[in-house]
């Protein structure tokens, strides 16, 4: 596994608390199971990978920088 795993937001309730099996690899088949600790939703592979991409993007350097109004 070469990916970093970050908590992924649940598409049902929006919480970011995942339950993963030991040795989880999102690229391995069969996938999962990955479930939401709050509502119990079981993620599809596509839901989890899309959420993982969004979570990783939020952690990139500069991803949370917002320019001051009027600055270009």
What can you tell me about this protein's structure?
This protein is mainly α and 72 residues long. The chain has one helix at residues 45-58; strands spanning 18-19, 35-36.
In short:
By secondary structure, the protein is mainly alpha-helical. The protein has one helix at 45-58; strands spanning 18-19, 35-36.
* Global mean pLDDT: 87
Distance between the termini: 40 Å
> Pairing-aware structural class of the strands and helices?
mainly alpha
Instruction: Give me the number of helical elements.
Output: 1
Tally of extended strands?
Answer: 2
Q: What radius of gyration results from the CA coordinates?
A: 15 Å
Unreliable runs: none
- State the share of residues found in helices, binned by percent: 10-25%
Order of helices and strands: EEH
Percent strand: 5-15%
Instruction: Going across the biggest sheet, name each strand in turn.
Output: 1-2
Q: Report the principal-axis shape.
A: globular
Instruction: Note the main sheet.
Output: 2 strands, antiparallel
What is the secondary structure topology, with strand pairs?
Layout (H helix, E strand, L loop, with lengths): L17 E2 L15 E2 L8 H14 L14
Antiparallel strand pairs: 1-2
